[in-house]
Amino acid sequence: MSVQLNRFMSVMVAGALVALTMATPAGAVFDPIGTEPVAPYAQPVDASVPKRGCTTTPADPKNTVSSTPAVQVIYAWHEGNGNNYEAYVERIAKIVDRMDWLLDESTNYDQHIKTSCRTGYDTSTYSGYAHALVIPEKIELADTTGETGPYAIADDLWAAGYDHDNRKYLVFEDFNGTATAHCGSVCVATTDDWDSATMMHELIHLHDVDHAKVSEVPNTFSLNDIMISQYNDWQIDQEFNTYYDPSETSALFYTSSYPDTRKVNLATLAQLTTPTCCDVGYSNDLLTAQERTIEATAPYSSPTGFSVSGGGWMQVTPPGSDGQVSARYYDGRRSLTMNVQSHAEGFVSITRKPAVTAGQRYKFFARLTTGTSGNVKLRLSWYNGSNSLISTSDSSLYALTSSWQEYNVSAIAPSGTATVQLSVVSPSGQNFSYLTDSWQLNHCNNTGNTPDGCRLSG
Ligand SMILES: [Zn+2]
Predict the structure, then answer these.
(1) Using the 8-state DSSP alphabet, how is residue 154 labeled?
(2) SS3 151
(3) Measured in angstroms, how far is the CA atom of residue 270 from the centroid of ligand 1?
(4) 14-44 tens-digit pLDDT
(5) How far, in Å, is the centroid of ligand 1 from the Cα of 180?
(6) For residue 320, how far is its CA from the centre of ligand 1 (angstroms)?
(7) Are 7 and 179 contacting, i.e. CB atoms less than 8 angstroms apart?
(8) What is the structure's pLDDT at 262?
(9) Strand pairing class (263-264; 253-254)
(10) What is the average pLDDT score of the chain?
(11) 182: Cβ–Cβ under 8 A, 6 or more apart, which residues?
């Protein structure tokens, strides 16, 4: 096993994948068991992880042409390390349960993996469910003395009759293999390092999602995400703006940097159930995709959904240097530019006032930068049901820098609140321009998991 560079779609010219794996234990017996990530917070113990169960009616796994799209879980073995299916079948099922848990737990949307099961087992017991879910397959094409790549896995499955377009194959390799994703004769997500985040990372790659990029800065990775640090993190796109937005499945995001022009939304993957609102999860957002990313409006024009008042005027950021444009004007990403004027306090606001609940905590995140220097603060303005202002909650005053830093303010909605308005406020007496992007309004209802119930910064 090794660092694996692989194009996961043969038609892709960009979007090369990097999948790191852990060291192979020495000795004759291969140990595939990996370590589960514990960020943004610890996962539940095995006994508390909900059992995913079978989505499809148990059937012949080699004849799924008329079945709903689903994942097919495979235990892959070869002569070199032998067939340890019975030893591992329940462990693999539990990892799939955890994959389903982390998808559902990432956001306040209820969404699950669709699983394919075979006939012949009593799925009311855990052992029966595991045996129906996980199918053993000897990989005849495997390299029994060295590393086996995903091409051999895909070709072997196809030859064995696991050849349906409506299946994504999750292949748990009990030998020296690779953590990667590959669509060849069939689409396979493979790993010889078995943990839920590594396998989920590879399954997400099969939806054309690259490693998570910071939206504003070319070729910079978003560090707190399953699509870059699956060894530490299990959460999926906590900002709702990189590749996954279950609240608006028509929204699409650039998954990689220029010149790649693919746009995706993981929430539409056919092997997942339709997302439904609302439950409690790690992250959530009360804004629309346009309010978060400003991508639907052309450069130079007035940003749809935003208003300005006081000292200044705004526009969708014109083309410019990579560091100042979000991220590059020509790959479709946008930011908002506020040109601050000194005669009065200036406000950039989301025009719409999302509904909130009095007594609950909310957190407003925004990324901000400037090519010069200047000071701003973030503001939550609380309104009652008659659209009258009750009070405001401000962050401290921030001296902006030349990097796209994330800032935030959080507060509890006061008694009588019905809606909230989000604003960036520039005190009077300044003449400068700043850029803003990646807004998010988080309802901090994740009580007991993060300190204030909000998603973490970063
Ligand atoms: Zn990867």
Answers:
(1) H
(2) helix
(3) 20
(4) 333 334 444 444 444 799 999 999 999 999 9
(5) 6
(6) 31
(7) no
(8) 86
(9) antiparallel
(10) 90
(11) 6, 8, 150, 151, 153, 154, 188, 190
CA of 200 to the centre of ligand 1 (A): 10
Q: What is the pTM of this model?
A: 0.92
Q: How far is the CA of 229 from the centre of ligand 1 (A)?
A: 9
Ligand 1 centroid, distance to 5 Cα (angstroms): 9
pLDDT for residue 332: 64
Listed by start position, the domains of the chain span 4-268, 289-443
| 120-147 residue pLDDT tens | 999 999 999 999 999 999 999 999 999 9
Class of domain 289-443: mainly beta
348 CA → ligand 1 middle, Å: 37
pLDDT for the residue 333: 75
Q: What is the mean pLDDT of residues 447-454?
A: 93
Q: How far is the CA of 237 from the centre of ligand 1 (A)?
A: 14
38 torsion bin: left (phi>0), alpha (psi -120 to 50), beta (else): alpha
Sequential DSSP letters for 40-78: SSPPPPGGGSPP---SSPSB-TT--TTSPPEEEEEEEE-
Residue 92 alpha carbon to ligand 1 centre in Å: 20
Tokens of 135: 């199918």
Q: Which amino acid is at 442?
A: N
